[in-house]
Amino acid sequence: MEARGLSRRAIAPLGLGGARVLVYHDVGEHGDGDPRYAVTRTQLAGHLDQIRRGGHPVVPLARVWSGPGGQAAPAVALTFDDGRASDYLHAYPLLLEHGVMGEFFVNPGNIGRAGYLSWPEAREMLRAGMRFQSHAHDHVYLTLLSAASLERQVLDSKRRIEDELGCAVQFLAPPYGDLNRRVRQAALAAGYQAVCNSWDWPARAGRTTVTRVAVYARTTPEELARLLRGDPLPYLRRVVRSAVLYPAKRAVLSLRPGWLTDRFITGAA
Ligand SMILES: [Zn+2]
User: Fold this and answer.
1) Degrees (nearest 5) of the Cα angle 121, 124, 130?
2) What are residue 104's DSSP bridge partners?
3) Domain 16-255 class?
4) Where are the alpha helices (DSSP H) in the chain?
5) What is the pLDDT of residue 262?
6) pLDDT exceeds cutoff 90 at 73
7) Of the ranges 4-8, 70-74, 104-108, 211-215, which is most confident?
8) What is the Å distance from ligand 1's center to 269 Cα?
9) How far is the CA of 58 from the centre of ligand 1 (A)?
10) Whose C-alpha in 1, 184, 198, 232 is 20 to 30 A from the C-alpha of 156?
């Protein structure tokens, strides 16, 4: 019995600290994107219930970055990539219903196109408490670009969103999670506070990289509960998978960009 007690005490402090920054893509039954990344409305509603039941405050990324502190349960940030129409049709009403805010990473180059958000929809969401950040101007691999093109992608997207919506854009999430030091430096030079990557781990305050945890169609309520709790095992499983796949994918990207299909880099698009 003593051994069991000891092991429990030993395990308890291993729960990971830091905010859980979740990243979603499509929400809805009939999304246009990759079905592996599309969660249903029922799934998202279940996740929002789980977060509430766990007592996790839902905070904006700016609070994650500045260090929310003080809560009994670790903070959660809800982020949505790609700016698809489903953000407005499905995610936004569910977030409103649950009284929480979401942070939407959009490509200004896609806004207004069929299947994507429009600027008026984004303005309505902003007025209701949602936030908007940059997913680059276009949905392209940033590490492949020349310095001038890279600067345009990070700077023009920031300015365009700020001009259209009148909000501060402080975070960049590179498309496909395609991030290196050059992209991070370009983003910081353009005035972003931090860059989001797709390395599944809780996020620490004040870092120039915000780690996010991808939510997939296959993510079960049990796995999400463990991720929210900070159980290291599901995090380690994801990190090991990325550590194996990421260098291989980067090598393919640098040698044969033409081989790449969407969402190839890290699994998170
Ligand atoms: Zn994307």
Assistant:
1) 105
2) 80, 132
3) alpha beta
4) 2-11, 41-53, 61-66, 85-86, 92-98, 119-127, 147-165, 181-189, 221-229, 232-255
5) 46
6) no
7) 104-108
8) 4
9) 22
10) 198
Residue 259, pLDDT above cutoff 90: no
Spatial CA neighbour of 266 closest among 176, 139, 179 = 176
What pLDDT is recorded for position 205? 86
Q: How far apart are CA 123 and CA 50, in angstroms?
A: 28
- pLDDT (mean) for 143-154: 96
Asked if pLDDT for residue 33 goes beyond 80, the answer is no
Residue type, 177: G
To which residue do tokens 């953000």 refer?
A: 87
Q: Is-contact 184 209, C-beta < 8 A?
A: yes
Q: Which of 226, 246, 256 is closest to 74 using CA atoms?
A: 226
Ligand 1 geometric centre to CA of 1 (Å) = 50
Q: Which two tokens stand for residue 42?
A: 């029922």
Count CB neighbours of 101 within 10 A.
17
Give the Cα separation of 198 and 192 in Å (integer).
17
pLDDT band at 249 (very low <50, low <70, confident <90, very high): confident
**Total count of residues recorded for the chain:** 269
> Distance between CA 70 and CA 174 in Å, rounded?
31
| CA atoms of 266 and 269, how far apart (whole Å) | 7
Question: 53: exposed, middle or buried (C-beta count within 10 Å: 0-12, 13-18, 19+)?
Answer: exposed
Q: What is the pTM of this model?
A: 0.87
CA separation for the pair 19, 23 (Å, rounded) = 13
Backbone angles phi, psi at 227, to 5 degrees: -65, -40
> 215 alpha carbon to ligand 1 midpoint, in Å?
13
Q: What is the distance in A from the centroid of ligand 1 to the CA of 223?
A: 23
